[in-house]
Amino acid sequence: MADRYSFSLTTFSPSGKLVQIEYALNAVNQGPQTASSATEKKSSSPLADPSSLSKISLITPNIGMVYSGMGPDYRRLVDRARKVSHTGYKRIYNEYPPTRILVQDVARVMQEATQSGGVRPYGVSLLVAGWDEGILPEGGEEGSRGRGEGESEGGEKKKTVGGKTGGILKGGPMLYQRGYFPWKATAIGKSATTAKTFLEKRYTEGLELEDAVHIALLTLKETIEGR
């Protein structure tokens, strides 16, 4: 009787859990620590080639992805993200997708695997970090009150980018976790709770790049030494 709950993807156990989803989350929690875009480079064997242990993948020139969990599942999602970015979205709009659009597609693929027959959930948690150019919503631009449409204070015409991606109000660094939630800083993996607590104490608005890198490294050091 218990096997029915363990192997069925859509059958809830008497305690109200989808056991296959629990298995996928357990795989994530066994993975190396990842904080922001810095990750622990951990080998399962001293015989492994260190050059093959990279956990950070470049999806587009402005978007990178890192994971905790099962490597084969991650590589499949990386292939999907690259295909969408380089052949799907770019073919239509002649530009790479914003981070939000890419994460939305990857999250949809991961969600479908939790409710489809013949497949299992992806045993990975993802962090997707990118830099998006600022665009304005359709039908207007910030600070245009009292001036002609598309005209700046000096009377010069100001270019307004269209809203085909839904109207992102401003550009800048973007960080998403696998559930399609934006973060200022976060962590995934075995010691994610400890790392997040550390980040909450260290993170401040307006961090310089050097300070952000330093905090990410300190977070990894804190969680690795605390095991």
Short description:
This protein is an alpha+beta fold and 227 residues long. 36% of the residues lie in helices and 15% in strands.
- Individual helix count: 6
**Got a strand count?**
8
Number of domains: 3
Poorly predicted runs: 136-169
**Helix percent band:** 25-40%
Spatial strand order of the main sheet: 3-4-5-6-7
Outline type: globular
Structural class: alpha+beta
In CATH, the topology of the largest domain is named Glutamine Phosphoribosylpyrophosphate, subunit 1, domain 1
Strand content: 15-25%
Give the C-level CATH assignment of the largest domain.
Answer: Alpha Beta
Largest sheet, in brief, is: 5 strands, antiparallel
CATH-derived architecture of the largest domain: 4-Layer Sandwich
Distance between the termini: 37 Å
Round the Cα radius of gyration to an integer and report it: 21 Å
Q: Can you describe what's shown?
A:
This protein is of the alpha+beta class. The chain is built from six helices and eight strands, in the order ααββββααββββαα. It has a five-stranded antiparallel beta sheet with strand order 3-4-5-6-7. A three-stranded antiparallel beta sheet has the order 2-1-8, with helices on one face. Residues 136-169 have low confidence and may be disordered. Residues 135-165 are annotated as: Disordered. Residues 5-27 form the Proteasome alpha-type subunits domain. One of its GO terms (cellular component) is nucleus. This is Proteasome subunit alpha type.
